[in-house]
Amino acid sequence: MGIITKRLAIVLAGIIFGIIVSEPLRKVIPYPLGLYAQVVVVIIFTIIFGVIGYFKTKNKGNSPISIIEEKYAKGEITREEFDKMKDDLD
Fold first, then answer.
1. Is the confidence at residue 39, as pLDDT, over 80?
2. Residue 30 to residues 36, 41, 49, 62: CA-CA distances in angstroms?
3. pLDDT tens digits for 66-83?
4. Which CB contacts under 8 angstroms, 24+ apart, belong to 47-50?
5. Mean pLDDT over each residue of the chain, to the nearest integer
6. Using CB atoms within 10 A as the burial measure, which of 38, 47, 58, 67 is most buried?
7. Alpha-carbon distance 12 to 48, whole Å?
8. Are 65 and 89 in contact (CB under 8 A)?
9. Mean pLDDT of 54-61
10. In a 3-state reduction of DSSP, which class is residue 46?
């Protein structure tokens, strides 16, 4: 799962969470204002979850181990080279 996919999943979770949390507002506050309040709450939670998701996934994948794992997965290095590099890093 790529970083962008993870970030989008976290933002989607923020949208869903915002809808769940704001549903009582829509029922309690009269029609137009309740709907606007729900939209504002969903936007706020989407922004909060988006920022959290960005910082949570910001520098993942830049470690030396993950770089050689990616090269091995792409076929750029052989199993022996991968094992040697991994042993050198440990």
1. yes
2. 10, 16, 28, 50
3. 888 888 999 999 999 999
4. 47/14, 48/14, 49/10, 49/11, 49/13, 49/14, 49/15, 49/17, 50/7, 50/10, 50/11, 50/14
5. 86
6. 38
7. 11
8. yes
9. 72
10. helix
Q: How far apart are CA 78 and CA 86, in angstroms?
A: 12
How many angstroms separate the CA atoms of 9 and 77, rounded? Answer: 32
Which percentage of the chain shows pLDDT scores above 70? 96
Q: Is 43 exposed, middle or buried (0-12, 13-18, 19+ CB in 10 A)?
A: middle
Q: In angstroms, rounded to a whole number, what is the distance separating the alpha carbons of residues 44 and 50?
A: 10
CA 74 to chain centre: 24
Whether the per-residue pLDDT at 2 is higher than 80: the answer is no
| DSSP string covering 16-33 | HHHHHHHHHHHHHS-HHH
Residue with tokens 């029609």: 31
Q: Taking residues 40-60, what's their average pLDDT?
A: 85
